Structure formats: structure tokens, C-alpha cells
Amino acid sequence: MINTRSPYYITAPVSTGTTSVTLTLKINNLTENSGLSAPQYSLTKNKPSATTTFLDFEISNMIRDFYDYTPIFSPFTALLDSNDRNVLQLNYSLTYEGSGTDITVLSTDVFDGYGYYEEGINPQVPSNAILLSNDYYIINKNGFFNIPVYNDGTHSSISVDGTPYTLSESTDIKSKIKNMWLNCNDFDGTVQIEIGDNSITLEVQDECKYRPTDVLFLNKYGAWEIMTFFKARKESIQIEKSTFKNNFVSNGAYSTQKHSFQDYNKNAREQLKLSSGYVPESYNETIRQLLLSEYVFLVNSGNFIPVNVDNSSYQYQTRIIDKLINHSIDFNYSYDKINSL
Predict the structure, then answer these.
(1) What's the CA gap between 46 and 48, in Å, rounded?
(2) For the domain that residue 40 is a member of, what is the CATH number?
(3) Which of 280, 272, 275 is nearest to 337 (CA)?
(4) Average pLDDT over residues 130-158
(5) How many domains does the structure of the chain reveal?
(6) Which one of 49, 150, 175, 267 is least enclosed by Cβ atoms within 10 Å?
(7) Under a CB-based contact definition with an 8 Å cutoff, are residues 129 and 196 in contact?
């Protein structure tokens, strides 16, 4: 499995008689297959010296061109495939010139995730197959939540409060990440999610004073995750403009109803600040992944609104120092208010 926001290295061992190695990449986005015909990339590296024992190819950036970051949505509680090109498959081969045994690797799953530096090279998905970093979440009674699962055939079902949903293997590449999409209005109290010997707990919260906002983002595993901000939502607008000074004197006179300073090229971007409400300290990891995400949306009943996280730095919170933990994040809508496309 490959996470393409971190470097992924394919290593070709070379022997004394090797002169060069060619790496061929075939990227699939629809149906799994074992073919290498019509590859998207073919790269050749020459052996630089007689003492060289291996050649490394870094491939992540080439693969990332093939994603299409379209979020999923269902108004009902359901188990969904990912959308097309949210997940990819890679076949590759190493072909040797001079001496060496050719190598072919087929059907490697590819997600647009990443690993932290401390996790080492070529990081993998969690062993429990749930593509979330915490085991406890507070969810919005009047909103939605998603539980992404790596569907590699290890597990046959996922259970939601005792109701099983079948995890079926398929040759459809988009089914490699299954999404247990919850309409939270179907549940009360706590919801127990189980897959194999692993489980996560969801606490359903009904916010009476504020209008909660569900934020969907691509997390470190390349899967769609939702965090709900339950408390105050503050919106603002930032104006951009140019100004010139008019000279409209005509025949020694001017009109007092004309602008001496005229604005033009005026547009704006709107911002919002969201507050999470009190959450466990484990949410620091959720916040970290939200801050690092390149694709963030507000969930608006299937109409996803693209936003950008505006925070360039953030102070994590701990229960020892901060007592009650409440996260406030700044967002910019990722478009001009006046359509300027």
C-alpha cells in the first residue's frame, strides 16, 4: 500500500553487471487488473558507479496527478464505496539492462495519505483497518459522520450498534476504502462501531443553542473524516479593491456628485471561525490532521462548500494546562464572493 503525500521509494537492487534499470508505472483508477500495457510513466536510471548496489525511484508526486478529490455523501446511514479516483491502484515493473532479474509488482493500493517523520519510510494503514486516528468521537445529532474502512478482505463486515454491514471485496478500485456514512439523527446516546476485534465509540450530542457545523476533510490516511464544531460560528468578510483618483474637471467646473476616489476591481473572500466545544485531549490529533489537510469542505446536506484552513500555527491543548479543551479554527471560503472565473 502506498501513501502518496509522503515519499514512496521503489528500490532496485543492482549487481556488478547491471548498467541501468527501467521503472514502468501503470496507474489504474477504475478496475483492478494485472496489466502493464499503456503505462503512464517509464523512467530509466543508469548505474552511476561500479560500487553502486541499489537504485531508488521516488514515485509519489507522479501518482498524485491522477486523483480527483470528490467527497462522498448519503442522506441515509449506508456503507458506500469511495468516489472514482479517490483511490488508485498501481502496477509496476523493474527491467534490468546488463544483468539482473526483472521484477513485476501488481495491484498495490494507493491512497493520498501521508506518514509522520517519526513513523519512518513508506508508512502503512492502521492494523485495525479503521482509517481514523481516535477511538472516541462526539458527533452531531442533526448532522453526519463517516467511518472509512480499508477493505482489503481481512474483515467481512462492520457493525453499527449491533447491525452488521457486509464488506464485500470487489475489483472496483473505489471499493478499497468503504465509507460507513452515518445520518446521526438515526441514533441516540452512544453508538458502538465494531470491526474485527476493534471498536470506536461515538457520542451523539444534541446542541440546543448553536448551529453545529460538520467539517469534512481528507485525513492522513487519504480518507474522508468529519469533525463537528458545536459552538459559536463567527462569519466575516475581507474586501480587496483598487482605487484611482478621478480628474473630471470640464471647462473649469466639476460635479460634486462624482467620485474623486473611484474603486474598481472590487471583490471579497468571506471567512468563518468555528469553535468545537469541549472535547477530549485525543482531538489534538484530529485537529493536527485537519490543519494539514489540503481538501476541506463544509457539509451542507450534500452540497459541499470548499474552504481553506487559515491557521498557519496552532497551540495544542492539554487537560493539565487548559483544563477544558475547546478548539477554535479559522477558515476561508475558497472562492471569491463575486464570481470572477
Answers:
(1) 6
(2) 2.60.40
(3) 272
(4) 95
(5) 1
(6) 49
(7) yes
Residue 112: which domain range?
2-73+87-119
Q: Distance (Å, rounded) from C-alpha 27 to C-alpha 38? A: 10
Task: Indicate the pairing of strand 103-111 with strand 2-3.
Answer: parallel
- How far is residue 56's CA from residue 13's CA, in Å, rounded to a whole number? 9
Q: List the one residue out of 299, 325, 298 whose CA is nearest residue 314.
A: 325
Q: Show the CA angle centred on residue 298, arms to residues 324 and 4, nearest 5°.
A: 95
Distances in Å between the Cα of 26 and the Cα atoms of 184, 231, 273 are 40, 47, 43
Asked if residue 112 is part of any domain, the answer here is yes
pLDDT at 341 over 80: no
- CB neighbours of residue 79 within 10 Å: 19
Res 43 pLDDT > 90: yes
Residue at 187 is within a domain:
no
Q: How confident is the model at residue 317 (pLDDT cuts 50, 70, 90)?
A: confident
pTM of the model: 0.92
Residue 20 is which amino acid?
S
- DSSP for residue 176: G
- Strand, coil or helix: 161: coil
Pairing assessment for the beta strands 198-205 and 103-111 based on DSSP bridges: unpaired
Q: End-to-end distance of the chain based on CA atoms, in angstroms?
A: 38
